[in-house]
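[09:14] KT: can someone run the structure on this one? pasting the chain below
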Amino acid sequence: MPIFEYRCKTCEHAFEALVRSGDVPACDQCKGTDLEKLFSLPAIKSESTHALAMRSAKRRDQKQGAEREYTQREYEKNHD
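[09:31] RB: done, structure tokens below
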């Protein structure tokens, strides 16, 4: 069951929909069925893309951890 990307021609809302054979997708916002199917690239997963994603996630998590520590220190400093 593939997931396709659509844009509603009525309200211009872009969305993804899981489409089973025989089903007609409808817009999430206006419930219209006059849709344009958008071109989407396939997701490619390899060891190198996985490694890049993991490094990016680690950097993000370290940054969020540092922000949480800073926020906690500021809270403790101002609420004693």
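[09:33] KT: thanks! The chain has a mean pLDDT of 88.
[09:34] RB: yep, looked fine to me
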